[in-house]
């Protein structure tokens, strides 16, 4: 499924795909904007199928859903309600306040307690990656990244490209090594154990493009730069947000081996043509960058690894400019 809408100064889209139709454990992406207060929120939720594979809910027709499937949708609903609360009451968007909503909704969600209790087993486990943003009176863009798990939020800039705003809750933090090893998460939203929502306050340049994505988008590419190339090569071929969403959807379904969801907002561009034009030069640069000396399928694994290392070395400085410290390192 795809969604897209274009307004003056605001272009929004979302992409949601299932690897196995009807069995996807990503919830639908969240992409909301409150016109009166000029506040918005993008978010994605990836149910953790490994630790939440037990049945947790049964539909009236007898079809069962896993705890991961339920958990992602509970988190989506809780985050949506939290955004409505902070918007209507003009309250600060604090991570602890969002966690209160997540805890409240998890307490009331359907659960089936398993007799098998292991260290990796979770009740209704899911990731969350979101960016809450607000357009100030002087047209400055204030934001807050919020996350738990290994879904990610990004800033996409015409000057330096894709920049990650979140740090995966895993023991490994290097983006290339994460592609190679896919380590288990050390923190995830769930109903039966303590978790935390990490946050980072940010001021974004204007105009700006913000996005959040589950690992179906960035976890099955050869290098982190390839994800940026996917976003910008599709942008250049699109005439509006809906077309861009559909082109992104086609690209990710061609390479991913997982469910994949993405929410994106572009703020401050006069129209879609202005948005596309702003990224033309960067799109050409990243396309050339990714194609340079790219190994073929016939190349040995050592050749591929050397190319990945070299590409990542040249890309990582700008990509990691906003990378936050680990939660345990924060004062």
How would you describe this structure to a colleague?
It is a single chain. Helices cover about 35% and strands about 25% of the residues. With about 325 residues, the chain is an alpha+beta fold. The chain has a single domain (about 1-330), classed as 4-Layer Sandwich (Phosphatase 2c, domain 1), CATH 3.60.40. The strands form 3 sheets. A 6-stranded antiparallel β-sheet has the order 1-2-13-12-9-10. Helix 5 (about 225-235) packs antiparallel against helix 6. The relative contact order is 0.17.
Q: Estimate the helix proportion, in percent.
A: 25-40%
Average pLDDT reading: 88
Widest β-sheet, arrangement of strands: 1-2-13-12-9-10
N-to-C span: 41 Å
Written as H for each helix and E for each strand, in order along the chain, the element string is EEEEEEHHEEEEHEEHHHEHHH
Global structural class: alpha+beta
Whole-number tally of structural domains: 1
CATH A-level architecture:
4-Layer Sandwich
Output the CATH topology. Answer: Phosphatase 2c, domain 1
Tell me the radius of gyration. Answer: 19 Å
Low-confidence runs (pLDDT<50, min 5 residues)? Answer: 114-120
Instruction: Specify the biggest β-sheet.
Output: 6 strands, antiparallel
């Amino acid at each position: 499924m795809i969604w897209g809408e274009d307004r003056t100064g605001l272009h929004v889209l979302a992409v949601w795909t299932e690897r196995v139709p009807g069995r996807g454990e990503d919830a639908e992406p969240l992409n909301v904007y409150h016109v009166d207060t000029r506040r918005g929120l993008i978010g994605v939720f990836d149910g953790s199928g490994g630790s939440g594979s037990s049945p947790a809910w049964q539909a009236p027709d007898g079809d069962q859903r896993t705890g991961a499937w339920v958990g992602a949708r509970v988190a989506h609903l809780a985050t949506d309600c939290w955004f409505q609360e902070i918007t209507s009451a003009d309250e600060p968007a604090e991570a602890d306040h969002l966690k209160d909503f997540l805890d409240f909704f998890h307490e009331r969600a359907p659960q089936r307690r398993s007799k098998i209790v292991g260290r990796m087993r979770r009740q209704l486990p899911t990731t969350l990656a979101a960016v809450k943003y607000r357009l100030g009176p002087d047209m400055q863009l204030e934001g807050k990244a919020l996350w738990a798990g290994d879904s990610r939020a990004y800033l996409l800039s015409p000057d330096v490209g894709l920049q990650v705003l979140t740090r995966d809750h895993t023991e490994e933090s290097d983006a290339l090594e994460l592609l190679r090893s896919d380590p288990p998460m050390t923190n995830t939203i769930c109903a039966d154990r303590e978790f935390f929502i990490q946050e980072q306050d940010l001021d974004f340049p204007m105009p700006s493009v913000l996005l959040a994505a589950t690992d179906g988008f960035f976890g099955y590419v050869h290098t982190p730069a390839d994800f940026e190339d996917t976003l910008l090569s599709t942008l250049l071929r699109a005439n509006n947000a809906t077309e861009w969403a559909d082109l992104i959807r086609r690209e990710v379904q061609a390479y991913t081996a997982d469910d994949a969801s993405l929410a994106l907002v572009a703020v401050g561009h006069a129209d879609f043509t202005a948005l596309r034009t702003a990224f033309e030069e960067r799109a050409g640069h990243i396309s050339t960058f990714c194609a340079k000396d790219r190994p073929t399928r016939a190349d040995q694994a050592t050749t591929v690894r050397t190319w990945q290392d070299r590409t990542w070395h040249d890309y990582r400085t700008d990509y990691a400019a906003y990378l936050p410290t680990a939660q345990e390192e924060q004062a």
